[in-house]
Amino acid sequence: KSVTAAVAVLVIACPCALGLATPIALMVATGKAAKSGIVLRSPRSIEKAVGITDAVFDKTGTITTGQMVLLEMTLINNPLSTESTALSTSQLLSYALSIESLDSHPIAKAISVSLLKQGVAKVDVSDFEQTPGAGVAARIPSSATSASKAVLIGSAISIARATTEFAPKLTQAIESANQRANSVAILAIDGLAYGVFEVGDLIKPESKQAVERLQSSGINTWLVTGDNETAGISMGSAVGIPIDHIFASATPEDKLAFVENLQQKGKVLMIGDGINDAAAIAKADLSIAMGSGTETAIAAADITLIRPSLIAVLDALAISKKSVKVIKSNLGWAFFYNVAFIPVAASGNLSPMYAAAAMAASSLVVVTNSLRIR
User: Fold this and answer.
1) How many Å from the N-terminal Cα to the C-terminal Cα in the chain?
2) Which of 71, 216, 234, 323 is in the most buried spot, having the most CB atoms within 10 Å?
């Protein structure tokens, strides 16, 4: 009888359920996250997600799409109201496309992509010249005469130096774009300004919802961006981040220091996508990188979002929190099973056959409980 009791104790004490408690839950959580476009880079990232008090966002590529697009066009066909300065809208757009398609700047790309989609035709250009920080210039043969036209496209400051005073309509378009924190490119031909192209970065449709849901769950939201204050406040306020939680013109060192200061009061989640976010991402208690971001940011992050939506941040936190709860319940059941049944087996009141059945049942409970994560 003593041998039978000893065998029953050994069977009951077999740590199958205890050994399965965490790995099974992590495996199910990883699979669930992958289906949602979330890559959990380490098991510890699941534990780190519990107790987050502050979420810090980068702007470009995180709450915004990170891709410049042409938002508005303002064109004047005849600035001086004379026959010699009159140009059709199709000519103006054709001149703009022909020059901007030769430029690699993000603003130029946004303009050329949009004009191509509208079916604008290109014309031949010559003497193309690019000045970093100012714009581009070229000469385009005139269809009416043998003389060519000098065409410039660039920033308002640089074009203002080479042209006459802007028409009120163009000045208003520039001021409106500045108020919206967007960039402008001015089209000038033979010393006259003919058009304003407003280019900006669009907010992701779900960014506002993601911020609101984080705030409703008790997590403070912050925006720390390297862009200017106007752009930071404009974008941050649009998604619901309080103005006093928006910090602009931040260097990588500033972002790192900001995260460190927040960590003195709570647990910080950093969400970014660029090289300038990498240090803050590495320092944060939990870090999430956008899959479309730089390799440096992805390598430093605990979690990578293949799905570009910020709702994936909420999904990642939810999966992590649920996984931790399941792991704790698995471990609790495994300990309870051993503590409760070992004395029964040691007293000789449990045969090895029933002990084996109990051990299998315990493991089955752990596996079944882990599947709740799905």
Assistant:
1) 45
2) 323
**Residue 1 pLDDT class (50, 70, 90 cuts):** low
- Per-residue pLDDT tens over the stretch 271-323: 998 888 999 999 999 999 998 888 888 999 999 999 888 999 999 999 999 99
| Residue-by-residue DSSP string for 274-326 | SGGGHHHHHHSSEEEEETTS-HHHHHH-SEEESS--THHHHHHHHHHHHHHHH
Active-site position among 54, 58, 277, 302? 58
Mean of the pLDDT values across residues 245-260? Answer: 93
Q: How much is the pLDDT for 143?
A: 61
Q: Is residue 58 annotated as a catalytic residue, yes or no?
A: yes
CA Rg, the chain, in Å? 31
